[in-house]
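Hi team, as promised in this morning's meeting, here are the two structures we talked about. I've kept the exact order from the run log so nobody has to guess. The first one is mostly here for context; it's the second one we should focus on when we meet again. Sequence first, then the predicted structure tokens.
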Amino acid sequence: MTYKLKVFDVRCDRCGNTFEEHKEFKDPEPDCPRCGSSFTRTILSGFQTKIRAKDPYEYIDGYVPDPKQKSVKSFANDRRRGGKNTV
């Protein structure tokens, strides 16, 4: 049976070395490969967190709609009243 291990960043408290380790979160902390110290800790990265947004595409392309812009519905109202369609 094969298990998929996650990649975690681990930092050594003694020498400050940061390295990647393939492990489960509940597994014991590995020893530092540089100094051999057992005083290491797992660093939680930002990509492992879940972000809830009203518009999921807002976080993909960085686009945030401007509340001052007219919506498509208001363009239709302007056109019916003799206004120019600016789209």
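And here is the second protein, the one for discussion:
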Amino acid sequence: MHVFVSAGCFFEIALYFLKKSDICVRQRHFFIKNHHHLEKNLF
């Protein structure tokens, strides 16, 4: 589990949880996209 989260990623996560519509559909795509974003920032 990634501990470090950039401000941009944190903002995206906050926005994501603010609008929980279609969470079951969007959850997988969001976390896959965010995972690549975190990897690009970390490594």
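Starting points for discussion:
Residues 7-42 form one domain.
DSSP finds two helices and no strands in the chain.
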